[in-house]
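Exercise 3.2. Students should predict the tertiary structure of the chain below and write it as structure tokens, then compare their answer with the key that follows.

Predict this chain's 3D structure.
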Amino acid sequence: MSVRRGGHAGSVSLMIKVCGQDGPHIVRLVRHIIGQLGPQDFLERFVAVDPRPGRFLRQYGPASREQLQLGLDTLVQEGAIDFWYETSTDPVQVRALNRRWFGCETDQTHSATGVPVAPQLDGFERAQGEYLLQTDVDVIIGRRDREHDFLSDMAFALDAGNRRGQRCCAC
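Answer key:
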């Protein structure tokens, strides 16, 4: 697809990654991200849940799976997100996911240093958009110009990179 400035044609999926410790704050955090990214037109907005029950990379509080699930269901009901999912911990499914992406036979959902890998990979495969904007739920977003179409800028940069033989860009 050739992207022109001013038009990504609603071809971008938004994926927000969360974990159990985000439960008490999930509704406020997701609403903040979506509010700051608006009025951009996403094809879909969804949340990827890290299946790890504890020992988070930068742990700041205890996990609350119940609050997380209730908050995510609330966000779906109000239309803030289209859906949410929790990455499977089934060893067969995780091994297949790692094989598809890395060509390795491991059933680990996280890196050796605790970085969640499987939730992002799972989300990459679930996303329906031609492009994907992925963020963690604790990201801070500030915009000077709410009318600026940053999604078209990102799509244009990716498209330009592909013409030069690059596979991705850091925007």
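Discussion points: Residues 1-6, 164-171 have pLDDT under 50 and may be disordered. The radius of gyration is 17 Å.
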